[in-house]
Amino acid sequence: MEINPNPLEFLSAKVQETVDDAQNLANQMAAKVQERANVVTTWVESTPSSMVGAGVVVTQEAFKVAHNIRFENLPKGLRFKFSRAGVRAEVRNLQQAAQVFESIPAQIRAQGPEAIRNFLQDKDWSHIKAHVNGGGSEANNGIFEKFRVNRKRGGVDMTHKELATAKKVLADAAFKSAVAEIVGATLKGAIVAGVIELVFSLLENSLLYVEGKITQSELVQQVATSTAKAAIAGGVITAILLTVCMIFPPIATLLGAVAIPLSVVGIGFMGIRAWEIFCHADRLFDITGNMEQAIANT
What we know:
two-stranded antiparallel ribbon
């Protein structure tokens, strides 16, 4: 025969069970929050080196782009080439020559004279309205096109389809050029950020190892993890900033100006971090005391 429990005891047990479940759930949520907080903290610690790496690379690239896309900064021989492109006896004035130069996609011009020469190797300045049909040599009556296509057409006006094809060739070349430039700069940004973080992380974790707070394997793991995260962050920041720079080359100077304070802020945070490392090492090895003793002995 079963004995019914006391209703008050039964209710109390259920309440206690509910409280325990709620407490367990709260503990699990707190653990998750702490785990996320640790991840964020790790990323924040590696941010200064990422900012410095990205800032240095983007500043260099942005100033290079701002310099390269200006006609007056071209070598004299290349400027003359645009003055003579697609014309016969005459020579264009500087304004028209600059407009011909600017018809090359900015993403290609941004990479400098050598990239421009490579781009022009297999191309002619094609008249949209043929010269024999009254077409002039002004910049708005031409486009760079594969020379085989241009010479095969002869003295005939370009059709709308041919013009669209020529524009697509230029767009494809610009896209490939931009991707190559961004990938190269991203790798440089990742390497710079990774190397900086490697130095700082190695110093910090070596002191913890000397104190016996971490093992040798933990030292290696933490250094590798922080270096990898800094490299990834530096590469991502560089890629984002340089992508904007390559999509809108005329604002490269502005982006370069933004990258400079980005680097300065990162260097400031790294200075604080370096001071903390020194203070930690001073507590362990009495660096200041030894220096004072050495000076006194001298």
